[in-house]
Amino acid sequence: MKTLQAGDKAPMFTLPNQSDEPVALADLLKKNRVLVYFYPKAMTPGCTVQAQNLRDHKEQLTAKDTIAVGISPDAPKRLAKFTERDQLNFILLGDEDHQVAEEFGVWGLKKFMGKEYDGIHRISFLIEKDGTISQVFDKFKTKEHHQVVLDAL
After folding, report:
1. Cα separation of 23 and 58, whole Å?
2. Separation of CA 60 from chain center
3. For 28, how many CA atoms within 13 A lie in the half-sphere containing its CB?
4. Is 66 helix (H, G, I), strand (E, B) or coil?
5. Tens digit of each residue's pLDDT (9 = 90 or more) over 17-36
6. Residues 6+ apart with CB under 8 A from 149
7. Residue 14, Cβ neighbours under 10 Å: how many?
8. Quick check: 96 and 77 in contact, CB under 8 A?
9. Which candidate, 13, 43, 85, 56, places its Cα nearest to that of 149?
10. Residues pairing with 108 in the sheet
């Protein structure tokens, strides 16, 4: 797993959102910087806390000309349930074949409770309007992710 770093160009991608509509990173970057955050699975405890905190701090992100976009290997139907259940106010994208996760270098071997498996590593990328990654966030607790990002902005 070779994770993209600050200074790298972000892969341009289009993925389905929670309404099963295609969303292109290039279109989002026309208006804002984009915080692309990868998370393992919708509606799990850590992912829920991370999403709720981004939801609750959306105004602070917007004030810094930044929007959050979450990406997981979940299907749009599950993302829709997550959005509705937690009243999320930002875009979630489904990367079911984990191709985008692989392009960013966040798909790889994980260990949990003595088992090894391939999955998404919880890493976020701040992407500038020109498509360049300006920051990579890979060391944070899920409940502090939003604050680490806001402090960096």
Report:
1. 19
2. 17
3. 27
4. strand
5. 999 999 999 999 999 999 99
6. 35, 61, 124, 126, 137
7. 12
8. no
9. 56
10. 119
CATH of 14-141, one of 3.40.190.10, 1.10.1760.20, 3.50.50.60, 3.40.30.10: 3.40.30.10
What is the bridge-based pairing of β-strands 107-112 and 91-94? unpaired
Could you give the 3-state DSSP secondary structure of residue 6? coil
Distance, CA of 99 to chain centre: 14
Cα(73)–Cα(150) distance, integer angstroms: 26
User: Which are the catalytic amino acids?
Assistant: 47
pLDDT digit string (tens) for 75-104?
999 999 999 999 999 999 999 999 999 999
**How is residue 70 annotated by DSSP?**
E
| Cα–Cα distances in angstroms (integers) from residue 81 to residues 10, 37, 84, 115, 121, in the given order | 28, 19, 5, 28, 22
By CB neighbour count within 10 A (0-12 exposed, 13-18 middle, 19+ buried), where does 5 fall?
exposed
Please, what is the Cα angle at 83 between 11 and 110, to 5 degrees?
A: 55
Q: Are 121 and 110 in contact (CB under 8 A)?
A: yes
Amino acid at 19: S
**What's the pTM?**
0.94
